[in-house]
């Protein structure tokens, strides 16, 4: 696991108390693209799936804004892109 993946996991776990949390580093799929980390260590593109009661009653945009707000520092420092799958318990 990498430093940024661990930071994302810690922040989302603490704030959202997720039922499930899956974070996958997809940086290798974006090598050479905008936002690629030239040091080859990845951690620039993540796919994040979260199931949390914190998302109940919120729109897709509200859920995304919540997550982007929680990860604002990481997005400024290194993370270039997040693919988000955000659900409340019981949603498919």
Notes on the protein architecture:
With 92 residues, this protein is of the alpha+beta class. It has one domain (3-87): BolA-like (GMP Synthetase, Chain A, domain 3, 2-Layer Sandwich). Helix content is 34%, strand content 22%. Strands 1-2-3 form a three-stranded mixed beta sheet. The protein is globular, with a radius of gyration of 13 Å. The protein starts with a helix and ends in a 5-residue tail after the last strand. The model has no long low-confidence stretch (mean pLDDT 88).
Order of helices and strands: HEEHHE
Q: Strand count, sense and closure of the main sheet?
A: 3 strands, mixed
User: CATH topology, anyone?
Assistant: GMP Synthetase, Chain A, domain 3
Unreliable runs: none
Please count the beta strands (DSSP E, at least 2 residues each). 3
CATH architecture: 2-Layer Sandwich
Distance between the termini: 28 Å
Q: Layout of SSEs?
A:
Blueprint: H1 3-16, E1 20-25, E2 45-51, H2 60-70, H3 72-77, E3 81-87
Summarize it.
The protein is α+β, with helices and mostly antiparallel strands.
Features:
92 residues, alpha+beta, GMP Synthetase, Chain A, domain 3, three-stranded mixed beta sheet, 3 helices, 34% helix, globular
């Amino acid at each position: 696991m990498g430093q940024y993946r661990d930071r994302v996991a810690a922040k989302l776990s603490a704030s959202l108390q997720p039922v499930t949390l899956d974070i996958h580093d997809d940086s290798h799929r974006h090598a050479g693209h905008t936002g690629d980390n030239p040091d080859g260590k990845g951690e620039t593109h993540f796919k994040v799936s979260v199931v949390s009661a914190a998302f109940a009653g919120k729109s897709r945009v509200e859920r995304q804004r919540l997550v982007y707000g929680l990860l604002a520092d990481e997005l400024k420092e290194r993370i270039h892109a997040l693919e988000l799958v955000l659900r409340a318990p019981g949603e498919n």
